[in-house]
Design a protein that fits this description.
single chain; 473 residues; FAD/NAD(P)-binding domain; Enolase-like, domain 1; five-stranded antiparallel beta sheet; oxidoreductase; redox-active center
């Protein structure tokens, strides 16, 4: 009986990173992917197609705004089929990096098919039982479908199906005001659909800073999106070929007619087909339980990415894969560190965050300072016509404890704060760093200066300056 060094289940980023490193280091590695292509949800249904779609929507939006820049242009006409073709072209271009032959060249045995555990050290794939010393589960997640009566019969779209649409819906109902829901809702509104977002929580993006999400919500409404928060869809019906969302908001009810429904109400881990009980792997509703070394309850079996949480981001799966490589390949006891985890919601303007929000910091009893600076006061943002949004910093003991940026290219800008937190840099060091002018990155220096200037111009400092100038020639 041959026993492989490492068997990896799941061909998304977590599985690909782990298998490529282990294979190139000379281990006997098997990579199993249920679908017929590698790349996972991010490449085929998530990050890549959504950002490609968002770019097309941005072009449509800029065309409408052309007059603001002194350019005359007509109302854009969206060919959703052509947009979809472009999405597919980008996916296929990136897919080349995930060619199975590339990984086979690293010494990885790539197999396609569904894997099921038959014991703690064995899995069954396409009728063949494979045995391994260690395993990695990286099977990702899928859309969670709420149990709304009539939804299944009415039909709906998810992130797995919407990128195949070729006809623009006149009216689109979006169930969920999280990142996926808002990104796609704004894009389709910019393409020309009438979009209604329905969110059960009392605000959009509930895990983000409420001050910043409140501003984003108003900006989205100004673009024409209808957003109902604190609202639940109780049932869906179809009448005369029209889908009706029957909703409740507190004590009142309303009916929202739509042509298509997009469900973006969260994610659920892909664990059902794995027969984890036969491997002794504990799983909860949120996913597979792992320790700080990414080991499951069966210590020779590791898990990473969406299937294990706690953050459903591609960059988190890649980071966790690195921790697994240290533990499973090099046998070096490395633990995860979630102190500095950035994430981005790719609306326009983008919303990026790292570290603690103001509320989280106060809940922890920290003595904090809050710094704010608006993009309307950043010269480059004004020059580009993107002066919406703000930066908000949570400062603790002279260092950044958290940062939220709502503004142009926030997903790029956040990384200065990520590095500052990772290296535990003082805000005075950020202020002292020369930031090129005119750039959007000026917002970092201007924000921290709003804290430091209060100290600089304090009465005590003013008194000290007067005495220095009296005593010294």
């Amino acid at each position: 009986m041959k026993r492989h060094d490492l068997i990896i289940i799941g061909g998304g980023v977590g599985g690909l990173v782990t298998s490529s490193v282990a294979g190139q280091l000379g281990l006997d590695v098997v990579l199993i992917e249920r679908e017929n292509k590698l790349g996972g949800d991010c490449l085929h249904y998530g990050c890549v197609p959504s950002k490609t779609l968002i770019r097309s929507a941005e072009v449509a939006h800029l065309t409408r705004r052309a007059g603001d820049f002194g350019i005359q242009a007509g109302e854009p006409v969206t060919d959703l089929g052509a947009v979809t073709d472009r999405v597919r072209e980008v996916i296929e271009s990136i897919q080349k990096h995930d060619d199975p032959e590339r990984f086979r060249g690293y010494g990885v045995d790539v197999r396609f098919g569904e894997a099921r555990f038959t014991g703690p050290h064995s899995v069954l794939v396409n009728g063949t039982e494979l045995h391994g010393r260690r395993f990695v589960i990286a099977t990702g997640s899928r859309p969670a479908i709420p149990p709304v009566p009539g939804l299944e019969e009415a039909g709906y779209l998810t992130n797995e199906t919407i990128f195949g649409q070729r006809e623009l819906p006149r009216r689109l109902g979006v169930l969920g005001g999280g990142p996926i829901g808002l990104e796609l809702a704004q894009s389709f509104a910019r393409f020309g659909s009438q979009v209604t977002v329905i969110e059960m929580a009392d605000r959009i993006l509930p895990r983000e800073d409420p001050e910043v999400t409140g501003e984003l919500q108003e900006l989205l409404r100004e673009e024409g999106l209808t957003i109902h928060t604190g609202t639940a869809v109780e049932r869906v019906s179809v009448e005369n070929g029209e889908r009706l969302l029957h909703c409740r908001q507190g004590d009142s009810t309303m009916t929202v007619p739509v042509d298509e429904i997009l469900v973006a109400a969260g994610r659920k881990p892909n664990v059902e087909s794995l027969d984890l009980d036969k491997a002794g792997v504990a799983v909860e509703r949120a996913g597979i339980t792992v320790d700080p070394r990414m080991r499951t309850s069966a210590k020779h079996i590791f898990a990473c990415g969406d299937v294990a949480g706690p953050y459903p981001f591609t960059h988190m799966a890649e980071y966790q894969a690195g921790v697994i490589i240290a533990n499973a390949v090099f046998r070096f006891p490395k633990k995860v560190d979630y102190r500095v985890v950035p994430w981005v919601t790719y609306t326009s303007p983008e919303l990026a965050h790292v570290g603690l929000t103001e509320r989280a910091a106060r809940d922890q009893g920290l003595d904090i300072q809050i710094a704010r600076f608006h993009f309307r006061d950043v010269d480059r943002a004004l020059a580009e016509g993107t002066g919406q949004g703000m930066m908000k910093l949570v400062v603790h003991k002279g260092r950044v404890a958290g940062a939220t940026i709502l503004g142009p290219h926030a997903g790029e800008l956040i990384h200065e704060m990520v590095l500052a937190m990772q290296a535990r840099v003082r805000i005075s060091t950020i202020a002292a760093a020369i930031h090129a002018y005119p750039t959007l990155a000026q917002v970092h220096r201007r924000t921290v200066n709003s804290v430091l200037s209060a100290q600089l111009f304090a009465p005590r400092t003013r008194t000290l300056v007067r005495w220095i100038n009296k005593l010294l020639p």
